[in-house]
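Worked example 2:
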Amino acid sequence: MQIFQKRVLSSYVEKQDEKTVTERWSKFQKFKDKIFSIKKMKEEKYQDGFLTDIFENCLGYTKDTTNPDNYNLEREKKNESDSRKVDGAISVNGNIVGYIELKGQNKKDLDKSSSKGLSPVDQAFRYMYSNNSDYGKYVIVSNFDELRFYIKNKTSYEKFSLFNMCENEFKKLHVILSYESIKKDLPLEIKEKSVTFEVDISNKFYKDYALFRSELFNNILKNNTKVDKLVLLNQTQKLIDRIVFILFAEDTTLLPFNTIPSIIKNYQNDVRDGSLYEMYKIYFNAINKGSKKLNINEYNGGLFKNDEALDSLKIDDEVLNKQAKILSAYNFGSDISVNILGHIFEQSISDLEELTAQINEDSYNKKQSKRKKDGIFYTPAYITDYIVENTLGKKCREKREELNLLHVEKLASDKKVTKKITQQKKDLTTYKKWITNLKILDPACGSGAFLNQALEFLLKEHKTIQEEFKNLGDIFAQYQVDKTILENNLYGVDINESAVEIAKLSLWLKTADNKRPLTKLANKIKCGNSLTTFKWEDEFSEVFEQSGFDIVIGNPPYIMEDDNRSAFIGLYDKPCYQGKTDIWHIFTCKAISLTKDKGLISFIAKNQWLNSASASKMRKNIYDNTDIKTIIDFGANMVFENVGQQTMIFILEKSKSNKDHNIKFIKYKNKVDKNQISQLLYVEDENIETSTKVLDKQYDETKNLTFSSSENEAILKKIDDK
């Protein structure tokens, strides 16, 4: 995920001193002349040269070796707290503000962990966090080609390819990373302006989006009086989803530019009688099946599948003309990102509930809206990133280690294929087959935050595999990565139909390619009640032919029975149900039952389950059927904005073993700044308590879940039952 909003960043790029940028771009050409030799250099040999060629010559820094009395870039800066060295440290007025971690060209994946367990990105952030400075905020990680720029946390970054850099990209790099910009804290200013812009544009877009839906629904009601109103509401939402896809697609080259205006123009020029909606349906069919005449490729996938009920609606021209034009005026390539769908969904839940209440002539209480009753809280990116990295990422690292693939050889052009190269190619083929068959589930997927994060991880891992095959001399080992992932790896279920459709839409928009159809997601992302009526073994038979899911992740709903008794209908006979329980306890038990042996389960959930009497059945299930690997208790730090709920992350491994095992426990002792919540997931700090102890598996149902060392020292303090 990028740090800066494209339009905001562009406005700062244009304000730079043109003469300075032109001179430095000219110097950058000398770096490009060295690319061939740089590719062959080991990291230690070129690290100092890289700081000179890029930071000193092209970005306006002065190294300590160039001017020991007046410098702002220090080579191999030692951390005072633990003596670790960072490859470069940027200072302003004597204070370290930025940290540079450099690797060689043999390190293609900057997120990939080394044999020591840390990736280059992790190493850089560990240094920044352990330095414990009030000034440090910028992190730069590079392998001499790929250069990443971070601010404060690793959930979002700007990425550049130095080997393939054009002048426009250099201007962006310069405005972000030149010493003049860092000295003025310009990147932080651009980030803050970006956040403000995105909030403003999101609110403005949703207001127009909601107005379109309202006017469209009222018009459909007026013209289709014989159809049930709730059916019409669902059809209105489906039509909106189709139009939103077109809006994104026409600004991201998936469909011809200005498709919506073209629909309107073609209708106005059509001499035949008919409605504007008839012309929309022609385009819907073209998107579904493809049309050479309209220059539209076949996308199919289910969103535009023929729907007779939807096609039979009568809709006045004016509502489709006026409101669709307003939405089409937004730039979905730069201003409205795919991630905005989550915010649209969040507000849509309440809006659709209010419309449903009006149709049913029910009273509507905004304080007890569906969002609150359904326990729906939207997961921050740093949580989805951590959980995916420590479940899916952990599985991949372990498999690579098993196959001796933590480091893959590179076949030199002048050398013969060795036995080691041949074996690694064979092992890499095994690894590719293994990762293609991984089954990952979010049983309460909402608008798809965890599924999208898993998609991002798998896209990167598959691209690494392709690069490794290429390095081993197999230039034909290319395949459609995203299609492979969506068809094989990702599964989701949610009780809310609108959420399911938006989850599918977000996955489509991230993987759509104008050269091929959309991947069919109808058999992978489904609407249903995960705890009662959903038939898991029938709906996902291929998963249970392999004994279950490899990974189950998510943010299950938090609903206390006293707050919403209707949510518990059908759950009273479930093994983990007990009086005054929370519905997420039952989700956890369901996740355990759906996971294969040695599979991983990780949720973010309330932190009261360790000793709450209402969670005793869930605790026993966890105790009997899993090994607890990690618990991270956020204490008084609220992960979910505007929600007064204390939470924790837990990671379980499915296991029937009766053996005691180690558990890692992290406790946030103090309330910290919002930015620090994510940072402290990766470092040791005075604000957190980290311990690894032995879990005694002698379970007593009358007692709370306790963790003790061999000296029986408790490591968990009692948490009040909220």
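Residues 333 and 524 are 28 Å apart (CA to CA). The chain is about 45% helix and 15% strand.
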